[in-house]
Amino acid sequence: MKAIETYQKQFLAFLETYKEEREPKNLYEPIAYILNLGGKRLRPVLTLMTTDCFDGDTHQALDAALAVEVFHNFSLIHDDIMDAAPLRRGHQTVHEKWDLNTGILSGDAMLIMAYQLFENYQPETFQKLAKLFSQTALEVCEGQQYDIDFETRSDVSISEYLKMIEYKTAVLVGAAMKMGAIVANASTEDQNRCYEFGRNLGIAFQLQDDYLDAFGNPETFGKQVGGDILENKKTYLYLKALEFSSEKDQRQLKQLFSNDGSDFKDKIQIVKELFIASGAAEATKKAITSYTKKAFEVLQAITIADKNKQILQDFGTQLMTRDV
After folding, report:
1. Alpha carbon 116 to chain centroid distance?
2. What is the C-alpha to C-alpha distance for residues 193 and 286, in angstroms, rounded to an integer?
3. Nearest to residue 95, comparing CAs of 111, 107, 113?
4. Crossing angle of helices 25-35/62-83, nearest 10°?
């Protein structure tokens, strides 16, 4: 297998060939814009890596990898509209740079374009990829709806939160890996194991994101530390803090996370102290380790060379120990 940077370069070179000028410009320029904003390219890289793990041709996996990336960015455009977010990766969001209608329509076009990429495969492979993609896309929408519902609920449970991040984030990571296995003609058992590896890694990845939002280094994290706290998001940290805290601290935490709590001076620092004192910060780190361990246990059952298992394990370890 190649180094991760090699897969990234291969994917980015393919992405460049995809971003041809099309008409009408007001539909396609926003699509090229968000695809140019960068990001970790985690999902397409995992698709290529998985194909390579089974000694498949990574060039054959490029269309599937791009479909995953196009869909992911479609979801970001619509998420940003729903969140009224002004910035994405340090740049104006599509609906801010253009307008709301453009964001909706360009996002819709991206979803269709993602499906079109599967048309480049033979019928049997196309059917497997499209079926997986449809199920995953629907689950991502379900996860987004759960996230929206949680904003107005005060009784969100840990299990509900984990289901939300599984659908909103983790299933697409799992699907990206399973697509790579499908393109490589891996066995159905190994395809499903790749999905489970990616799904568990995706949950750990999102929990790590929650943790870094509160405790990350402002210089490396890439966005405002404490953003989730200011937005009153009921993350794993928050839910665990409620579970572990005294009644007095529970009341303070709920007050801080109420709509009028945003005006509290030093809100981020007070909440972080409650996260640490309650044991929620430590519990979140343990959960990250637990889901990463689950992923690695599944990885050991996949019938690929040990050296390839090690590369995937190293990749997973890097994700879980990152500070960005």
Report:
1. 22
2. 23
3. 107
4. 100
Residue type, 241: A
CATH code for residues 188-324:
1.10.600.10
Please report, rounded to a whole number, the percentage of residues in the chain having pLDDT higher than 90. 81
- 263 confidence band (pLDDT: 50, 70, 90): low
- Per the DSSP assignment, residues forming a β-bridge with 91 are 88
Distance CA 44, CA 152 (A): 34
- The two tokens of residue 198 are 């990616």
For 136-145, how does the pLDDT look when each residue is reduced to its tens digit (9 = 90+)?
A: 999 999 999 9
Say how far apart CA 274 and CA 272 lie, in whole Å: 5
DSSP H stretches of helix in 155-217: 158-165, 171-183, 188-215
List the domain boundaries for the chain.
Answer: 1-186, 188-324
Report yes or no: 95 and 83 within 8 Å, Cβ to Cβ: no
The C-alpha atoms of residue 90 and residue 324 are separated, in whole angstroms, by 14
Whether 103 and 81 have beta carbons less than 8 Å apart is answered as: yes
Q: Which long-range contacts (CB under 8 A, 24 or more apart) does 265-271 make?
A: 267/229, 267/230, 268/214, 268/225, 268/226, 268/229, 268/230, 271/214, 271/226, 271/229
Rounded to the nearest 10°, the torsion over CA 202, 203, 206, 210 is -160
> Percent of the chain, pLDDT > 70?
95
Which class does domain 1-186 fall in?
Answer: mainly alpha
The whole-angstrom separation of Cα 221 and Cα 30 is 26
**Residues 196-229: pLDDT tens digits?**
999 999 999 999 999 999 998 776 655 667 888 9
**Alpha-carbon distance 209 to 53, whole Å?**
27
Q: How many CB atoms lie within 10 A of CB 133?
A: 21
DSSP labels, 263-313: G-TTHHHHHHHHHHHHTHHHHHHHHHHHHHHHHHHHHHHS-S-HHHHHHHH
Q: Measuring CA to CA, which residue among 98, 80, 76 is closest to residue 26?
A: 98
Structure tokens at 88: 């994405």
Residue 60 is encoded by which pair of tokens? 């054959």
